Amino acid sequence: MRRIILSIALMLAAFVPASAQRQGSVSRATARVVPTNWHGACPHAFEFTATIISRSPGTVYYLWERSDNSSSPRQSTTFGRAGESKVVRTRWTPGHSGSGTLHGWARLQIEDGPRSAPAPFILQCRQ
User: Fold this and answer.
1) Cβ–Cβ contacts within 10 Å for residue 106, how many?
2) What is the pLDDT of residue 4?
3) 19-125 domain in CATH 2.60.40.10?
């Protein structure tokens, strides 16, 4: 009887959908941008990276929030252990192509977790 129950349990475990993965938790998220200041031809793309440090193993969901009140689609990364770090990336080309200065930022928001401080940039377009 024990073998039958064990066999059934193993078969069910093999068919658990990816959406049923254990949700991890995050202790910290920090965001950075390169370059922090652009003076030149526009449009120009900014590269954002964030380091996420896990508090517990599992899948973590996040999105990028931006100063233009938009956000990225929901994304995920999976941690194998507590204390593990992962780097996630996004790219943003602000829709500012005229002359003048644009001050902007992006930050990482962890679902049910911390939010990074904004990674600010200055875009100075010249014609």
Assistant:
1) 26
2) 55
3) yes
